[in-house]
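Let us practice reading a record.
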Amino acid sequence: MARPREFDETDVLDRALNAFWARGYDATSIEDLVEATGLGRASLYGAFGDKEQLFQRALARYVEYSRVERNRVTQDLSARHALEAFLNSLIVAAADKRKPSGCFLQLSATAGTTPPLVQEAFRATNREMNGWFTENLRQAQEQGELSPDADLAALTTFIGVFMSGLTASAKAGVSSKALTMAAREAIDLMFKESQSRKPPKPGK
């Protein structure tokens, strides 16, 4: 009869995630993972498979956590406030000293040699995220925050590029205060620009 596992799988995945996040896939050795998780090689392999399989599990956990957290911080907010809250949540996460700074998925996709699954996950997550951005912008149009002729595709791209720059700046050491001001300015400019293109009301 197999012995029951004597560790919290979620906790182990979080520890492995932080190790990959801090060093990158290539530079993270099995010994690093053993030290980070507190498990012996045999237990680590037995529970999660090889390094690539463990990375895949950690990556999936990060993607799912990010999605759940995004939905949590934007729940019941207007479209514009949801976008503001989402960007601010990225800044708060970047300031959390318990975790490496920057976006784990973005860093993994652009650094060193990584498994093909990283690029696949990066593209899939970008598609899902862009869909969320576009839907929020469409709701903003319906709520009168954006003009009916606003270019949703262009605005979606703008937010995605700004988000990437935000996380990269956080990793480079830009302060949370500066990033918060930049995020507020970006949202204000985006909505003001769209508002300025609204057609005049009849009789005006």
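A brief commentary: DSSP finds nine helices and no strands in the chain.
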